[in-house]
Design a protein that fits this description.
The structure holds two protein chains of two kinds.
Chain A (H helix, E strand, L loop, with lengths): L9 E3 H11 L4 E4 L6 H8 L5 E4 L3 H15 L3 E5 L3 H4 L2 H10 L3 E7 L15 H5 L5 E4 L3 H16 L5 E7 H5 L1 E3 L20 H12 L4 E5 L1 H6 L1 H14 L3 E3 L14 E4 L6 H9 L2 E5 L5 H4 L10 E6 L13 E4 L2 H15 L6 H11 L15 H12 L4 E5 L3 H9 L8 E2 L10 H11 L4 E7 L10 H6 L5 E6 L4 H10 L15 H8 L2 E5 L2 H13 L4 E6 L27 H7 L1 H5 L2
Helix pairs in contact in A: 1-2, 1-7, 3-5, 3-18, 9-14, 11-14, 12-15, 16-17, 16-22
Chain B lengths: L17 E10 L4 H11 L6 E8 L4 E10 L1 H12 L4 E6 H4 L2 E12 L3 H12 L3 E6 L2 E8 L1 H11 L4 E6 L3 E4 L6
Classes of the chains: A alpha/beta, B alpha+beta.
């Protein structure tokens, strides 16, 4: 009979979970206790290597973990109980899947003998989360737990990153078994994401780039996910080729907004120059982006005259929406490195002077123009003021979803990757506040600002309490127009100005609300008071709700109307009632 | 382009549909079939036929054969989406290889007497279907073949007293010495 009592790898399932977190370098997790995870919470209580942040709602734990992950490049970890704890995680898991964020969620489950029994706080967690995770596991045997946990971290962080979930029944948490540190054999042999790009394809790509007359680089979140080397190489490629670069919402910061080749964001609310460059280009290099429907506009009129090169680690992103000429599957950092090497060895800098002159003409249209006012704060102006006040500081920006998000993307200049946390694919209102909590936990000394809308922020407002508890001085900068602005904008443009349920008739007093939570509140109405108040907000070392009252009917332009192509953008100076009505003729027909 | 008011670009696609047979080698573990089927229902792909069984019990490998229809772009998506699932080893488009054999097995119950009964037996013989159960008023035939052959046999049995059919769905394998 072997004596296992002194074997340090013999431990309970609950202890294994904490041990695995430590082995994967996790220092902070976000969670909410409940019946089915109490053994894990008991282990957390008895150690100090992993700090647990108690949120106020499991959705907050998920978004906080996402903010943590996106601002650090490390996986975010959330811990929730069974049943409602797990179902409340569905939104952040889906959000992370859409935006390729590495997230490890550990959920408690009812004891194995009760599974399928409609037990208290039971739900089919792996069934519910199957379509919203990269992979998930239900662990029925404590001796499988170490392997599954290690595989979970590996799957979440490699290839195209994404959320994973490990469902652990309570009896498995109590049971004793054998732990082992991470090892290669923990991972499915069937999982082997491709990293290195095909050499022939890379040569084809370089040959297209070298002979381009009207090139454009279109980069996305994949560059940021790939890591700092990919960002460095992207910048070098722009430098070496002299090509213009635009980026998706997810890709902001990979190339600095102050860089001379920067065109601004592209897509539905992108700049005129970015969209026109995409439309008229002859060679398009798409790096780590996926031709999403907010980017392409009308697909049959998308960049009709160009040869398209697409670098993506996920083969299913290739030819999904847009047929490309040279697909290259692999890690974009790796492939950018290869492209640069071949380009520098064999190609000379293409002459794109005439192309830049054309771009300069588009730029001169000044598509982000808005009319300033002395009486009322324009939301665009508020973002610009915030940007100026935080320029050069160590700042992280999160957002909610809607008009404020688009204005933030248009008017806040990002110089570095990992500084911009926004819900792109899923468009989750309520993302920004808990994400800011996660970012601030990862970067306690940095300035973390959630650029919010008055409607979105109320979806996860309770996480103010988390921020106060852990002394996280997040700044919630609310562009308060008393509307669900983007919903209202669409109703105005497409539904005959019938503003069905997009006005918030009962707005809380955000200053009092901040104080009730134990934070600090500001309210600003006048443009003249804005800069001073922002400075004051920055100097406060406590959580802040900043109620910035802005023009209530301002709309977000430029804009590609539905069913239109990149070269049919509606510019702000054209957006009078008549032009708008014409651009949205399809919508008017239904009025 | 006159489209209804929508935040999405609504576009009708008119590419012709194709039918493809896919062989998918997966780790046989709990939930793997649910993952594959969930992918099809979640992304709106069609399943015409689905056959699954463990094929290498030592290695815990199962082979799933799926017959699906879609535009060429959708078929390509389906293959990539399947291939990126964690427990999926390989996806082979048997239709593209043009070197695959497809077979289905069906059990066909026919009830009748007199001339109908004789005719059913005669046709079964012509189709090389075997009688695997018989009573004085019924037969159960076992027939294997490609989908068309089985459909044809069933159609012929219909006026002769077809009661019910149980089919396995398509299983496919490549010709020649190589495995998938």
């Amino acid at each position: 009979m072997s004596d296992k009592s002194h074997d340090p790898n013999q431990m309970t399932g609950a202890a294994m979970i904490v041990r695995a977190l430590i082995d994967h370098g996790v220092t902070d997790i976000f969670g909410y206790p409940g019946g089915a995870v109490l053994p894990i919470y008991d282990e957390i209580f008895q150690q100090s290597q992993v700090q647990h942040i108690l949120v106020r709602h499991e959705q907050g734990a998920g978004h906080a973990a996402e903010g943590y992950a996106r601002s650090t490049g490390k996986p975010g970890v959330a811990l929730v109980t069974s049943g409602p704890g797990a179902t409340n995680m569905v939104t952040p898991l889906t959000d992370a899947l859409m935006d390729s964020i590495p997230l490890v969620c550990i959920s408690g489950q009812v004891p194995t003998h009760l599974i399928g029994n409609d037990a208290f706080q039971e739900c089919d967690t792996v069934g519910i989360t199957r379509p919203c995770t990269k992979h998930n596991w239900l662990v029925r045997d404590v001796n499988d737990l170490a392997k599954v946990l290690h595989e979970a971290f590996y799957v979440a962080t490699t290839g195209r990153p994404g959320p994973v979930l490990v469902d652990v029944p309570k009896d498995v948490q109590f049971a004793t078994g054998t732990y082992h540190p991470p090892r290669k054999s923990d991972v499915h042999r069937s999982y082997a994401p491709r990293v290195k790009g095909d050499a022939t394809q890379i040569r084809k790509a370089v040959s297209l780039l070298a002979n381009a007359k009207r090139p454009v680089i279109y980069s996305g979140g994949g560059v940021i996910n790939s890591g700092p080397e990919a960002t460095r190489l992207l910048r070098e490629l722009v430098e070496v080729t002299g090509f213009p670069i635009t980026s998706t919402l997810m890709g902001l910061g990979a190339y600095p907004a102050s860089g001379k080749s920067w065109l601004g964001m592209l897509g539905m609310h992108g700049t005129y120059e970015a969209n026109m460059t995409m439309h008229d280009c002859d060679v398009m290099l798409c790096v780590g982006a996926r031709f999403d429907d907010r980017i392409t506009g009308r697909v049959d009129a998308f960049s009709p005259g160009s040869k398209k090169i697409h670098i993506d680690i996920d083969p299913s992103s290739i030819n999904k929406n847009i047929r490309v000429d040279v697909p290259i599957i692999g890690d974009c950092g790796n492939i950018l490195g290869d492209i640069l090497q071949v380009f520098k060895a064999e190609a000379k800098k293409p002459d794109v002077k005439a192309w830049w002159q054309q771009i300069a003409q588009w730029r001169a249209r000044n598509s982000l123009y808005y009319r300033k006012s002395n009486d009322v704060i324009l939301p665009q102006h508020a973002i610009q003021s915030l940007f100026e006040a935080t320029r050069g500081r160590d700042t992280y920006i999160t957002t909610e979803v809607g008009q404020h998000q688009m204005w933030a993307a248009q008017f806040y200049g990002f110089e570095e990757p990992h500084r911009w946390m926004t819900s792109g694919g899923l468009g989750t209102m309520g993302y920004g506040l808990p994400a800011a909590v996660g970012v601030q936990v990862a970067h306690p000394d940095s300035l973390v600002i959630d650029i919010a809308g008055d409607a979105s922020v109320q979806m996860t407002m309770q996480e103010m309490s988390t921020a106060v508890q852990y002394e996280l001085p997040i700044k919630i900068f609310i562009l308060n127009n008393q509307y669900m602005g983007m919903v209202r904008q669409w109703q105005q443009l497409l539904h005959g100005n019938r503003l069905s349920h997009s006005y918030s008739e009962a707005m809380p007093d955000f200053v009092k609300l901040a104080e009730a939570y134990g934070g600090v509140g500001f309210q600003v109405h006048k443009p003249g008071d804005l800069d001073g108040a922002i400075q004051e907000m920055i100097s406060v070392k406590r959580p802040v709700l900043f109620d910035c009252r802005v023009a209530s009917l301002e709309n977000c332009f430029p804009m590609i109307p539905s069913g239109k192509a990149h070269n049919e953008m509606l510019l702000p100076e054209q957006a009078n009632d008549e032009a708008t009505a014409k651009a949205f003729a399809g919508g008017k027909a239904l009025v | 382009m006159n489209q209804p008011a929508s935040a999405y670009f609504i576009e009708e696609r008119h590419d012709p549909n194709e039918t493809h047979t896919l062989s998918v080698l997966v780790q046989n573990e709990p939930g793997v079939l649910a993952r594959v089927i969930g992918l099809f229902s979640g992304r709106g792909y069609n399943i015409e036929s689905l056959t699954v069984s463990e094929t290498e019990s030592q290695k815990h490998l199962s082979r799933i054969t799926i017959v699906t229809t879609g535009t060429p772009m959708v078929i390509e998506q389906i293959k990539h989406q399947l291939d990126r699932m964690i427990p999926v080893y390989r996806v082979v488009d048997m239709t593209l290889t043009k070197r695959s054999i497809e077979r289905e097995l069906a059990m066909v119950k026919v009830r009748g007497q007199g001339e109908h009964r004789v005719e059913a037996l005669r046709l079964a013989d012509a189709f090389r279907a075997r009688v695997i159960d018989a009573t004085t008023e019924s037969f159960v035939f076992e027939i294997t073949g490609n989908t068309d052959k089985i459909n044809q046999f069933i159609d012929l049995m219909r006026p002769l007293g077809l009661v019910e059919v149980s089919r396995t769905g398509v299983a496919a394998i490549g010709r020649g010495p190589e495995g998938m």
